[in-house]
Amino acid sequence: MSSRPDDPDPVAVPPVRLTSLAHGGGCGCKLAPAVLQELLAGQPAAAPFRQLLVGTETGDDAAVWQLDDDRCVIATTDFFMPVVDDPRDFGRIAATNAISDVYAMGGHPIFALAILGMPLGKLPAETVRQILAGGASICGEAGIPVAGGHSIDAPEPIYGLAVIGTCRPAELRRNSGARPGDALILTKALGVGIYSAAFKKQVLPPEGYAELIASTTQLNRIGAELGREEAVHAVTDVTGFGLLGHALEMARGAGVTLAIPGDAPALFAQAGMLARDGFVTGASHRNWASYGAEVALPPDMPDWRRHLLTDPQTSGGLLIACAADRADALLARIVAAGYPAARRIGVVEAGPASVRIEG
């Protein structure tokens, strides 16, 4: 792996590095879980709206409103600051990440609205056009239009989407339906935040950048298919809170314990080495400070391995809880659909709402 900024084959970047204009990047920009819980505490409940099937009560991936016996509307929004410097790649990653929330609910996206904040005078117009074009290209892959949006002058570059989707009520999947005895499946490898930290220090080699882009721009469209599977009981996408944070949301929602061997999830090829070398985001530390008290770790687990599990995943994979007797067949189907890093990563147990990492 390259370890010097003056390596003869660095990843090409534009004259103005997008990441240099932002204090954070990707889903690592999200508020820490504990801060978010504090801000949402005391907000009025949505219970009086009987058609609101999913609101804020379990920290799910999107809101869901039932129109009639056969149709639900799914609504979500997601935006962040640059995780890479190539403007088209930034747009593609942000759009993929936003659309993922609809797929995680078992739905099909139908259209998107762009959310844009740009520091006027700091970026050329062509750079902004490329960000928008990258987002539109991913929407095209998903078969949806960018039907409008809103833009502001902002001190840091921000881009994302509001996405609207649909699903049948029976195909809706929440993050709170896990059952004791279920198997856990994760569809993508971990390491996005670690790779982005190395990228900002200009030590991520071209093959690492290619691996990063391939994962973060892969749509989680398999989620719409999983919504039609009765054996799939719960789904969420793994983003800024890391695998442990989103697993803990699943555990809290269902009142169960998730048991995950620490070496079970797939990793980016160089994620372990980079984590050992200290390429860890500030968000990883904030994540652990927020929820570490509810996670049991092996006593001899080194910090770098823990950071792989708290690493913020921009446009990460889907975490799935499904009937154990169907897990191998579902995993094979997921891999065949184009997710080669998908793995069975643990089990759901009866017990307190918590996550246990096994050595």
| Strand line-up of the largest beta sheet | 8-11-7-12-9-13-10
Percent of residues in helices comes to 25-40%
Helix and strand sequence: HEEEHEHEEEHHHEHEHHEHEHEE
Number of strands: 13
Ranges where pLDDT stays below 50 over 5 or more residues in a row are: 1-14
Percentage of β-strand residues = 15-25%
Structural class: alpha+beta
Number of helices: 11
Largest beta sheet, briefly? 7 strands, mixed
Shape, per Cα inertia axes: globular
N- and C-termini, Cα separation: 28 Å
What's the average pLDDT? 90
- Radius of gyration, in angstroms, nearest whole number: 19 Å
Written description of the protein model:
- This protein is an alpha+beta fold.
- It has eleven helices and 13 strands.
- The chain has helices at residues 33-40, 87-104, 125-142, 192-200, 206-216, 222-226, 242-254, 271-276, 282-291, 303-310, 324-336, and strands spanning 52-54, 63-66, 72-80, 108-118, 146-153, 158-167, 183-186, 232-237, 256-261, 295-296, 318-322, 343-350, 354-358.
- The longest helix is centred in the N-terminal third of the chain and has 18 residues, at 87-104.
